[in-house]
Amino acid sequence: MIQFENISKWYGKQKALDTLTMTIPEGKTSILLGPSGCGKSTTLRLINKLIIPDEGEISIKGRSIRDYRAEELRRSMGYVIQSIALLPHMTVEENIGLVPDLLKWEEQRKEKRCLELLDLIGLDAEQYRSKYPAQLSGGEAQRIAVARALAADPPYLLMDEPFGAVDPLNRESLQNEFIEIQRKLKKTVVFVTHDLEEAVRLGDRIFVLKNGILQQSGSPADILSKPANEFVRDFVGPDRSLKLLNYYLAGNFTDGTDETDHPPAPETPELNAGDNLKTALSLMLETGLSSLPVKGVSGRIHRKTIESLVNLKEPRNPETEE
Ligand code: ADP
Predict the structure, then answer these.
(1) Are residues 71 and 171 in the same domain?
(2) Could you report the per-residue pLDDT of 226-263, keeping only the tens digit for each?
(3) Residues in contact with ligand 1 (CB, 6 Å cut-off)
């Protein structure tokens, strides 16, 4: 757990953060979200002591970061930034091995870890390990940057617009891979973005900032369905209910009834548990059915459940994050 307690940070006369208090939970992805200049990167850099606060207290696992040596802190935190920071004269394998090198790992252990990580990020190890950064696409280079941050298996991962410079298509596949990796590794991730869609897709918890002041924190569903003020409402935009449908998964919204005695007719279309509610609604509109079964999940999902979400009324069985 990373705790911010009344943190303020000034750059000269400019206040970049104003009495920020927040708790970043363990093993989840927390998103710092807001427009450019709202203080997201400043918040991130405070966590690994690249900068220090003017006021307030930051603690990690109950211990003030003043009591951690910067080096000790940074070793427990992988850091990925937008501008690709791979060293151009080093191969992929050498880039991934940077921190293990510092930690004086043996060659064999380093090699094994590198191959493991290339596999984790979905790149063919034999093909990529000896490439140089100039031989990689933008998306591949960012994958390697993530692998490098994970090399020594740090419990924390700080990510500052890590996919911001990648084209939209590649960005989506990087996001999907990130979701998969995080499902396996369950790191404590702090992720900076100004992109609402990205925040909603990746975040377990979202912290919305404006002018260095925390506006709202909550699950993506909270932020979309119950914006705390005018600013958050404007930021999430007028089509927030549709965004919410993109975010909710069909498997979580069935009525839970046991249908083993009345299995659906063989030709009834089925949803997958991982389909989102927008897909579910489209299929219902297409087929004219008012409910649909979900593969592998008991019960059916009803059109009226989805409609209640679009109207932003409380859903029948809302997914909770905690
Ligand atoms: P974000 O990451 O949300 O874009 P930042 O945390 O980078 O925002 O910046 C917050 C505010 O502090 C901005 O107004 C920015 O101009 C200012 N700022 C950030 N870094 C510096 C710096 N090194 N010197 C002076 N002002 C800075």
Answers:
(1) yes
(2) 899 999 999 998 878 788 888 888 888 888 787 666 66
(3) 11, 14, 16, 34, 36-42
